[in-house]
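Its record is retained below.
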Amino acid sequence: MATEKTQYDDFIVKGFIISALVWGVASMTFGVIIAFQLVYPQLNFELPWTSFGRLRPLHTNAAIFGFALSVIFATAYHTVQRLCRTRMWNDTLSKIHLALYNLTIVLAAITLPLGYSQSKEYAELEWPIDVLIVVWYVIFFANYLMTVIKRKEEQMYVAIWFYIASFVTVPLLFIVNNIVIPAGFLKSYSVYAGVFDANIQWWYGHNAVAFVLTTPFLGLMYYYLPKHIKQPIYSHRLSIIHFWSLIFIYIWAGPHHLLYSPIPEWLQTTGMVFSIMLWMPSWGGMLNGFLTLTQAKDKIKVDATLKMMLAAVTFYGMSTFEGPLLSIRAVSALGHNTDWIIGHVHSGTLGWVGFMSAAALYYLVPRLWNSNLYSEKLANAHFWLGTLGILLYIISMWVSGITEGSMWRAVGENGELVYKDWVEIVEFLKPFRLFRAIGGTLYLTGIILMVYNFIKTIQNKDSGFVEQDLRIGVKS
């Protein structure tokens, strides 16, 4: 007897893919601009809305909540339907979510350069936009959960666990951190003050990295990596251990951002200890990814998507080693507030999030538009440009950050600071920051190549997609 084939809603997946491409190019373009502004201040143009202080939050919001969230939503809609073997609960809710979400990013792109900001890291948007976010998030989460509830597949694969953990925790973080008292249409004041406000902010800030830039992308890895190579994940048991240990430990690590601050010392120590403990689950996930990749290791040199997955898992391992290292008091004393932190953040965002996002998009676009990828050579060029860009970026920031921290702390024989003039240090760091800007430009060039490759692929839609088999011993 023939089985009924489920008709999935791929319109919504395509919508968020296009959203990711638009906001990805925009966010990284602003990132390159502000990188060059740090080297050549005249690029601020003496206009308030083009200054570094206005464009920097625009860059971070567009990158995290425009590009990364678009990828998360595209892959969440795509994976939940297939892993649950059922269509989304309500197609209309999906479309409303897509429209209101992109309206939010447009409003952010208008208000942030105009200076309307709550002045909280990763939470700059003012209260009317926050309310809009709550509206579309409730719509999305209800639709997602109802799809899981009505699933035809009884067992829930670990990828869904990572997505659900993200979608449950993010609103908790967002709402608690953004409780404000409105003082006008685009002005508000936080209900928190002093060290309590700082502690809430970095509980939110660190866990925004955890539950926006880590856990959903682990869910993405656990689905698209095995699917692409047509081999099972190396260890399902390890993936479950990875999930529960990461979820439990990550939420307590935020206070390591506030070492040497007025918050209680026991709280600082708690953040540091839990951060160090994060090495274990993080590297457990990294090893699971690496060992899964070994099942198709002979194909890595010819498959750009596989290269990006390998690089992404590598950068995940590097950044999740570096983060706990920077949470140690002695290391934090040297690195905190320096360029080293910028290098660490972008090792994770460009290497882990950026490459894993690109790999998922390279997997999805040909299949959804039913057309073979226009050019594998362009995809390989994207990979090498991106890799070189990341290495230039993070190595220059490592050197710059350690140099910067050492110059800040340098004390002469009489106990006075050796470098009393802060501008002197800034001038000394210019060459390193120029290399950072060049690295960012290379990475952006790779993204533009990817977008061009996708445009040409989509133009040839419905020409027929031929699946390649990456299993060892099986010819493509």
In short: The longest strand covers residues 180-182. The chain has a mean pLDDT of 94. The beta strands are 180-182, 188-190.
